[in-house]
């Protein structure tokens, strides 16, 4: 898959997520109230969407960090940053690049030893924590929705 298409898709997903999170932060600062909606289920759904937005932004930022027109350029830059500027001086064709989409990973393996991870260390734990937040908020919304309904007795019709 083309790196340009991947970057465009990540950007198209990240922009609405970032806009929603920005609106949430501005609302929180302006009103000192974390939820925009009132009611039992609304705040849970809002926080589930916020957690999903955080996961999308982390995935997009982690994945976009290694996209370049020349695939080996980020590998060489990271290798020079970690091991010094004289650490690698052979042709770019020798570098093996391995990518995974979940957990997000892009590893450059150099001949004769060092390998470099291009995805920042914080990316995958943040994605997992945000997805766990989505699940927890979803469960909270279901529980709030079921407890906010009035209990019906056996003699009443629905």
Structure in words:
By secondary structure, the protein is mainly alpha-helical. It has four helices and three strands. β2 and β3 form a beta hairpin. α1 (3-31) packs across α2 (42-64) and α2 (42-64) packs antiparallel against α4 (123-148). 17% of the residues are buried.
**Which strands sit side by side, in order, in the main sheet?**
1-2-3
Helix content: 55-70%
State the distance separating the first and last CA atoms. Answer: 53 Å
Radius of gyration: 22 Å
Average pLDDT across residues?
81
What is the number of E strands? 3
| SSE pattern, N- to C-terminal | HHHEEEH
Q: Unreliable runs, pLDDT <50, ≥5 residues?
A: none
Q: Shape from CA axes?
A: elongated
Largest sheet: 3 strands, antiparallel
H/I helix tally: 4
Structural category is mainly alpha
Strand content: 5-15%
């Amino acid at each position: 898959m083309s790196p340009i298409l991947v970057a465009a898709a990540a950007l198209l997903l990240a922009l609405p997520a970032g806009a929603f999170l920005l609106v949430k932060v501005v609302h929180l600062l302006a009103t000192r109230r974390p939820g925009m909606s009132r009611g039992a289920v609304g705040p849970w759904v809002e926080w589930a969407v916020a957690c999903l937005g955080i996961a999308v932004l982390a995935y997009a930022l982690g994945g976009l960090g290694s996209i370049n027109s020349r695939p080996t350029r980020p590998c060489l830059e990271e290798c020079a940053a970690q091991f010094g500027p004289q650490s690698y001086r052979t042709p770019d064709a020798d570098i093996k690049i391995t990518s995974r989409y979940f957990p997000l990973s892009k590893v450059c393996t150099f001949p004769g030893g060092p390998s470099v991870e291009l995805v920042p260390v914080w990316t995958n734990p943040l994605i997992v924590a945000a997805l766990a937040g989505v699940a927890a908020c979803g469960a909270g919304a279901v529980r709030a929705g079921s407890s906010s309904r009035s209990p019906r007795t056996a003699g009443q019709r629905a």
